[in-house]
Amino acid sequence: MADQEASKITHSSHLLLDQPLLRLPYELLRKNFRGAHFHFEKEASSVKNLLRDTATGSLDGKVSPDDVVKNLDTMLARMRGMKRKLSAYAEEEAHLFKQVDARVAHLRELSDMQTVEDVKYEAWSRQRLDRLLVDYLLRHGYNDSAQSLATERQMEDLVDIDTFVAMSKVRKSLENGSVQEALAWCNDNKKELRRMNSNLEFMLRCQQYVEMMRAGAELKLVEATTHAKRYIVPFSSTYPNEVRQIAGLLAYQPDTTVEPYASWYSHERWTKLADIFVDAHNKLLGLPSFPLLHIALSSGLSALKTPACHSSQATSSSQPSHSTSLTTSVCPICSTELNELARNVPYAHHTTSHVEHDLLLMPNGRVYGKRRLEEYAGKAGLPDGQFKDLVTGETFPSDKLKKVFIT
Amino acid sequence: METLAKDLAALSKMAGLAAAVDNIDQIIEQLSRARDQVAQARDPHIASMTMTKLQNPIKLGFDKVNDSLKDVASRNKKLGKALDKSFPLEDLPADHDAMANQPALINRAIAMHLLREGQFSVASTFIDEAQDTAASHHGLYSHLDSHDDTTSPEGDVLMGEDDSSQGDVPVSMTASSSDHQDLSSLQSQELQAKFAEMYRVLQDLKARNLRPAIDWARANSAELEARGSNLEFELCKLQYVWLFLGPGVNGLPDDEYNGRSGALLYARQRFGRFQPRHLSEIQKLASALVFAPNLGQSPCRSIFTIDSAFTDVASSFTREFCSLLGLSAESPLYMAVTAGALALPYQMKFTSRTKSRGTEWTTSTELAFETPLPKRMVYHSIFVCPVAKEQTTDTNPPMMIPCGHVLAKETLQKLCKGTRFKCPYCPSEGQIKDARQIIL
User: What confidence tens digit (pLDDT) does each residue in A132-141 have?
Assistant: First the structure.
């Protein structure tokens, strides 16, 4: 039967929305390792050099025993520092593995279910909704809400609060007009950003320049020129237009109305920078560029939507608020929460009719299934042979009803 | 997933960064031992000897750390491979985000979802945060907020008591709804209070206390009746049965208001107004008193098996409660997201197929592919004209012709020769004036 087909869970494709669930901790593991490795290389080479120098120096008699002890102390301090750092990385690694474990366990629950009618599916799907909500909340910077939802639902291991909170800190700092945090982030992810051809750092440097120009004082202008020479001019072949405009900026005051200089001076650039940063961040970690909830909603709203959902007349099978309880429930698209949101999405495509059995037409033009009419008449306590319209409440004798054939 | 879980179990047995930390510990040990030796001897010769001897072990130590790090790298790589194998990466549709310019509406849907799920504290945190953000955007970039201010229903409508005039009029539209106002209408606590009430009643139902539910049903009996709902009677009936079963089952105090006499008393007080409609059922309930000593064998035993009765009335209570607020019983957000997860594969299949053919589908009024959903997620009757294979809409409504067959209006117009047409499904003929529009 077609319905069985529709409610079957195809495991390979049912988890499309859940890809970041495992991809992100994997990316973070790699990033964590890169951090550990980088730190180790840096410290190890300095300790090794110091050790070699001390040994040769001591052999040549250039380094006194006291200095040897001092150098050894330096090495020890460095090694202890390294240990501390690496322990932190190791902890993070263990934490991430725990997350991966929890997430795989969560996804595995689904593989035991064959259809969406499975009693356990609803709980699983609800948890998925909660995950998507947390993802949405975090991406919009509603961090407290996300945290409290995750705590309430006990699913901290299934959501990526830390990652997004860190991201939203940088984003907020950009929105508040500070580039420092974003530059630090660029520095942490230099190699990857270069591989992605990200223009984030360049844009941040440009903004720094713009701010120096805005400050306007003589001294600042000199500083700005030095800054431009160091950070902006090297990119003149990659971003020729921007570099040219930046150079031209020198001739315009911050209150200019001449484009493109006015938009360089505009405060909206900060919002734009924040967007560029968020894009780069998400791309770097393999995250979709917009909330997963959006993807789920736009596909789900369409799948549920019918032409009747925004119809000007109450159809017999839909009942905004004033319905009868015989029909199962108010349609989710007709419900206040989603009605407006669904207004502009396309409605679902159907090739066959889905109607009740034994349809009867009432004199007022409304059509209902026979069983539903009988049930309603019974509940309304009507005498035999009388039927009541489920929407309008009019009653008609049964001989006024006509059979309807749907082919 | 099974294989992935197995791979993962194998990977977690492999050493991680912690091994590298152990190796570092060894280096620290050697260094500090050497330090102590040199410090004690304070002799240039011993110092240089120690230092020279130290070179190799330390180098080895660092090599070990390096090896551990390599192991970690290969473990990560293996994890990546395991993921690729069991969970191959597929690109999600990312070309256009239809929801991006509707944050206010999405926020409202989420706030209402949290409220209806009974997550009141999360909801209020969320409303505060969302409003703060909206407010700060108002301050900084007030011009950005001018986006479509005309297309949201005012939140108040959904909180208003249901009255009969709303039946045919879709939720009225008013002309202002920035993020700010939308959520503040939710914060006005009316909806929250409603849902809090619903949760209190449900909680009581769970504790097998029917009174609050009965009180609510009585207070709203006019609306419930208009909906053809029997909720009040069902609740009273259950209360009767509950009392009837006596203190041994219901655990209420054993007095004149409990047990069979209590049930009788209750029936006398309450059943009167249900008589016109539910006479036969009341008779059955009353006759139970006769069978009382040996209910299990009596014809009315089915009424008195109440295993699922409480969960049943709880769910119909939720449904009625939400319906009177104009809301669906299931969280629409939950339904939409679940439907989305089911429909997404079809969408991706379609896009990949059309992309490879070079023909792309642009959003119009109807999806270009089918997204089959389980039956319980189909809420409206759907009529597809059997000739045009198109769904009927407001502008192209279904028409019934005299023989009882139904066609879309446009189809009928095309079929027409002059004022007459022949039914495509049976031999009968009809006049266009005899065709009438029907409402499914």
Answer: 999 999 998 8
